Structures are given as structure tokens and as C-alpha cells.
Write the C-alpha cells for this entry.
Amino acid sequence: MIFLITALSFEAKPLITHFHLSKQEGSLPVFSAGEITLLVTGSGPMNAASHTAACLSRFELTPSDFLINIGICASLDPGLETKPVLIHKLSDLSSDRDYYPDLLCTSLREEARLLSGAKVFRAEESDLPLPMKDTVYDMEGAAVYHAGSLFFGPHQMRFIKLISDYGRDFPSPKEISALMQEFIPMLEEEIEAMKTQCFALPKETIDTEAVEDLFLPSASMRRQIHQLILYCTLAGISWQECIERCRNEGLLPAENREEGKKRLEELRNELLA
Amino acid sequence: MNFLPKFSHIYVEEELADHPETKRILARFPASHVIFIRRYTDVFNRKKQSFETQMKSQALILAKKHGTLLYEGSPVCHRFGSERFFYTTTALNCMFSCDYCWLKGIYAGAFIVLFVNTEDYFLACKEALKDGPLFLSLSYETDLFPLEEISGHLHRWTEFAKGEETLLAEVRTKSSRTDLLPLFAGHRNLILSWTLSPEEIITACEHFTPSLSKRIHAVNEAIALGCSVRLALDPMIHVPGWKSVYESFLKELSASLEFDGIRDISIGSYRQSDEYQKKMRRRFPDLACAQYPYISESGFSRYRDHREMTQWLKERLRQFVPEEKIFTLPEDL
């Protein structure tokens, strides 16, 4: 599952159209289609954290799932141009905590630090030591990371910010939607990058219960049999043949636990020789 | 889409921003993104990291080591008869990736931490030497050879050790690099120790490491240069048919290795603290090395037949080297 998280509805609008997402039932503004789920958190850190946590807790997540937080930001560096920046460090101004998402695979070149505060950044009112090189500002990023980290590892979270202003001359909703629209091809590349970064083989579970039962096992013996079979499977040791032979020779199923212990020991000696 | 190259991102502790070593290292990576952090643990100890994924694009963390700089050696490591065995961690994690490596159980992530304040380590070492001779392992939680271009640790440590006669320093590696061997040449208190494994195990478990023949070539070069060379046939790995695998391995060693020039050999089978073994099993569900049905002895996970394995190997090694040159662990006797 791919979770796209935006703060504002006009950030989400072009994504909803592009990915043909439809509104899901329930109190949260969640839109989805296929592998994509889009969450609109609302503005500010409280909304971002509570909505993110509430949304993610509804899913049975796997190691291949990830989230991408996308949205507009203000630049604290006049040298940064209005294009997407990949965030390598998020600093929460209220708690003084820093967060570091893993950047192992990406198509984006520009990177920046993100400061997340509770208020809209206005250059003339700010007490930040401006200008700050390679730094941008938003109100949600750190909160999304904090809530997301309950569910995801640092390699499963990505933060991309689109510079929309420098703390003055704020963009209109229409301009914000246009920025997002322009970004969609890059977002698609980043989704592919995150798929690579979070690639995980589906977890294969080996059901050993039927084999375990043949030994009339205690709980501890069950664990030992399971571990032995798991190892043999990974090491390419053909344990099935041994079990089959024991069955054919009438050695299994065991008649009692003592005999089961003996058979397990014999099996272990044979398989781990 | 490909993973980014190693060290495309370098995390630097803020207090090291102006350290000369930081500047030297960063100058080697002009294209890398530099991210300033407060403490290396803020990145290194994050929760839910994927060791396996991070190995595909390792980042570098430049840090300053605070607190304890020399640690007492673990009871499951060879002491080689030394009264005082210590180890030091000038780097954490490795550019090689061995399936059985204990670092996979210890650390939450695969990024490499380089501690740049080697001057503090030397002071700690001098202090410890006041209490008597010291056997010090320098590469306990890393392999320093492949990191040398970046860290410069081997150059600095060998230079330091040459001036400290009561210090016996050991560097253990799987590298086949021969350009660094002159650093160790002619100094009896510097030991170069090679981990050698059967080629089948290298291929299956010791990822990104040189082949056995390349390692043997480096060992012979080191002997020819007059280095004090130790072999570590440790850890032995219990693969199916391990006896025939190790038989062929010994045949190859006897055919191509200058055993006469070897200082000593340590042998031992895989062991790992139960706590770290548990973590490895959880983190690496598909690794045979992690999932082997070990037994627990005195808090360490071992093979059921670990004594038989090491005794078997010792017996055979005695054909090539005198018994007093073969070191086994007390628990393998």
C-alpha cells in the first residue's frame, strides 16, 4: 500500500484526479484506488499527527508499504529555487526533536532540511536566524514522521516539499494545485524509487504443525521442530524425505512423548550431520 | 531504479563540523549530501531500520566517541594467552556483509560510523599501558581495510603502535588488499589476522568479500614482507556436509599457503550471545545462518557439535603447524 499524505485539499485535488481516487466512507478524508491511499490531514501538526496515526492504524501494514508526505513549504534560503526538494532531516521546532528518513533510492537531486512549526511562516515576524541555507519550513512534516514512525521504519517514509513562497506573497489555492499538478510525473518516479527501497519478498510461512504433531511434542519440542525444519528449508536440506521414511518405517507418529523425543534427536542428528 | 551509491549521504555530528578529519573526509565526497546531526545515535539507533536495505546504499556517519574507548574482550573471543585483552571500536559496521556476522545482531542499522577522534583513543591506550602490556583488537566491530581510504585509521594506528612496545595490536580482515601491508611489515607488535573460509562459504555467506585465493595471495605477500600474520579459521560454519567442505578448504590452504611464516592460527565455530541471536532471527528470517537450530550454552548460541567441529579442524591443522600455534577456545575443549 502506498500512502500519499497531504495537508490541504487543494494539494490533494490534482492527485485525486490523476490517480482516479475516490472518497472512502468514514470520518477521515481518505481517497483511494488500487495500491494508492491518499490522506488529507488538514493544516498544522496536531491535524497531521492525529490523522496520520488514525489512518495508518486501520491497515494491516506490510514491509513493502510506505508513505510519502507531499506538500508546499516556505523556503528559508533565497537561493533555493521553486522546485521539489527531498527532505533529509526534519526538525520539530516545538519539541526540538530531529527525524531522519532514509534516502537510499531516489530520482530527486535537490535536498533540504525541513523545519516544522505550529504557525504559518511569515518572514517579517519570524525569529529564526534567516537566511538558513538549504532549509525549508512547513507545519506538518515532523508530525507526519512522528506518527508514521509508529508504523513504519525510516526507509518507509519519504518527505517531498514544493517551495511555494519565501514567507511572503503566499500562493493562491489555484497556484498550489498547479504546483502539485506539475510535480505529478516526479511523484510517480519517486513512488517507483520507494517501491525499490521498500521491496520485500512476501514472507513465506512454513506450516510445520502437522509434522510437529507426529512427535507428540511439548511446547518446547514444538519450537525445536519448527526451528529445525525452518533451517533445513533455508539450507536446502530435504527434511521431507526423512519424515516420509520414518513414517514408512513406522517410527512416526511416536507412541508417546519419550519416543517422540528420541525420534526428534534422531532426526536432528540425521539432518544436521 | 537503482540504489544510490555508498556514502551518497554523510551524517556529521555538529561538534565535528570543523574537525580536520571531517574536512578531509568530506573533501573526498564532493557530490555527497552532508547532513548535520547532534549525536550519531540519533541516526544509528533509530527504530525499525532495515539493515538489509541499508546495506544496498550505506551512509557514512562521522562521530566523536565519548566515554569508554577501550573495552575488555569478550570471553568467547581468543585471547592468545594474553593477560589483558581489550578491544576498541574506531568504526562500527562494515562494508562487507557476512550472513553470520554478529554486527547484524548488535546494531539496529547498517550505516557505517567512523569515530574521527583517534587522538583520544591513543591517550586512553597510553593510560591503559601504564598498568602493563596490552593485547588490543583494533577491528572488533568493523573491517578497517576497505575503509582505509576514508578513515585513515590503519595508518594512524600502526604509526602509534610502533612507538608502544608493550602494546600488541591486532587488525583482523577479509581483505585482499596488499598496498597496506607495508604498514605492518617488520613490526612484531602489529598482528595482521586474516579470516579464511572455504570458498563455498565465502560465496554463500560472505558478501562483497574477496575470494579465498585472493586472500591467500594477500597472506603470502604479508609473510614475504615480514609481517606478523595470524590466520583465523573462525567462525567455522555448519553447512551441510561441512567435513568435506572444510577438507577441500584445508587441501587448498596446504597447497598454496606458506604455513611456515604463520605466527599462529585461531579456530572456533560460530557463537553468538543468545540475546543477539534472537535479534538476528527476527531481523533475518530468510538467512540460514540466523535460523540454524543452535543450542544455548552459558548464554551463547552454538552448534550442538561445536566441540567436534573444532577438534576435527585442529587435528587436521596439526599436519601443517605445530599444536602450540593453534589456539582454540576453552569451551571447545
Helices of chain A lie at 9-18, 45-56, 141-148, 173-197, 209-213, 219-235, 239-248, 257-271. DSSP finds eight helices and ten strands in chain A.
